[in-house]
Amino acid sequence: MTQQHKRQSDTKMVPVPSHSIVPERDVDKRPVLETRHLGVEFGGLKAVEDFNLTIGQTEIAGLIGPNGAGKTTVFNLLTKVYQPTTGVVILDGKDTAGMNAVQANKLGIARTFQNIRLFGNMTVEENVRIGLHNQVKYGMFSGIFRLPAYWKQEKKQHEKALELLSIFDMQGMAQYRAGSLPYGAQRRLEIVRALATHPKLLLLDEPAAGMNPHETEELMENIIKIRDRFQIAVMLIEHDMNLVMGICEGICVLNYGRIIAKGTASEIQQNPTVIEAYLGKRKEGRA
Amino acid sequence: MSMSMRKKRAIGGLVTYLMVIAAYLVCQYLLATGGMTRSLRGQLVPICVWVVMAVSLNLVVGVSGELSLGHAGFMSVGAFSGIVASGWMLGAFQLENEVVRLLLSMIVGGVFAGIAGVLIGIPVLRLRGDYLAIVTLAFGEIIRNVINCLYISIDQGRLHFAFNDSNIPGELLVSGPKGGVGIDTIATFGMGFTLILFTLFVVQNLVNSRSGRAIMATRDSRIAAESVGINITKYKMMAFVTSAVLAGMAGALYGLNFSTVAASKFKFDTSILVLVFVVLGGIGSIRGSIIAATLLTILPEVLRAFSDYRMLVYAVVLIVVMLATNSPFLSVRLQRVKALLRRRNTNPGKEGEAA
After folding, report:
1. B213, A126: Cβ pair inside 8 Å?
2. Within an 8 Å CB–CB cutoff, is residue A230 touching chain B?
3. Is the ipTM of this complex over 0.85?
4. Which of A76, A212, B257, B280 is the most exposed place for a label (fewest CB within 10 A)?
């Protein structure tokens, strides 16, 4: 397992048939996500077009691009908030055509949101418990009439919720109102809630937005920790280049809804198209 | 020393139970000592009914966040199926025990209202916001108009149904526009009180369970709830049908409290009346619903002379509340008052000095 990603990921990336690259360790395993010619149109406007990507089972992938490039739209397509007009999304070997967001989540995709969407009036623990909705179950009648299943599963939910919160050292905040948490903690809570659904692929939409450099550094370590502990893939949208270049193994650059480059951090940094489109017209492309 | 929200909520639920039990005991005391006027005594069962109606509508409006304007429709389904069930049990099985008959009638009323809730919920819960409100309103009116044409009679223990035709054999139980006739008034205050406790038990326990959290999640953020795998329609439906069942039980109790009940009792005004209880009591606040329903049922009785203006006053109050909650001018002042009260509450020493 790769241990140090301090400045730049040193994972060896290898090409796969679908014009993508995945980490060498994942090449013999079924990719967690595969998209082919994925695209969506809104009233004639092609927001995303011909999006092809493969993500390995334990890969940390980055999706970057200028504002309005269609990054969040890609997330919405992958999580089935939008239905694609063209192409397919294959999640863990299963075609998601015709599925809705709930079915996609059950298949193993979970996400956070760019503009935080927590259940602000509920406690931190309750937010995680909602994430555990399909993991620790009991029926409505057990809930109303407080049957043994209620007590057993509530206890289990409580324990699991605290265990998940401990990833970010947030057990102490379990009883706080989620909406009252500081911004960074709210972002972390969203990640915990998404993790609670037991995903195979975790999508993070600008996880470091609003965090200070110290918090961002911690977040980077935590993302790697999550990947190693749960053995899942992570795909993130981020504008913080230190974070993207620091932990992302495969990076995909989007501009005007199209992929303009794919590769490792160092390849992306030296790609002239990327430098022109994203980082501006400069000789040296380090942001 | 901040108490955890969980504990606070548990205590809040307990306080609501205690409040209801205390009110019941006070009423029993007044009844025993003869300290209650005749007209107020007649309002005891209706108060219980409106409290249950308000709490059950709060489950839809406050907890699941959908505006339903057809709650009286479910009440009317419950009332008439309860009336028929009671008449049938008396006619077919000579079931004389009033408590058992009332209880079974209420269960029948709840079941039928629940079925109506499922049938209406399937198309209605695909809609959102204003559209949902409009369609529930229409369904409430449809139910009322259907019952307006319904004739049900009992002849030698067998029920006969007819539509727009009063020539059916036997004794009429439901007689078209006249509604339920010759009802055996078996509703009791004790059963009303029990129904309130049952409603509180169901609603509060539901809210504090996995299903309740899912319902509230769909209310707070549809997209986020879907992203964690919560089936929105299922949980909206759960709240809607549970609410319909409780309204049906309340309806049966209401129907069996009067010797005649017409379908026109359950028109749009009644749905709005219940909504007013919920809004005035505070959307999402169960205790508020109980207090508002009680006060607004007693007040017209106490101020009998003004009861003609009741709907007018409701309209004015609703508009004022809407203006007050939306006006920045008033909300700033309201917050200031709240802050003042809070300061006083957390400073018992000062209050003592003032006293």
Report:
1. yes
2. no
3. yes
4. A212
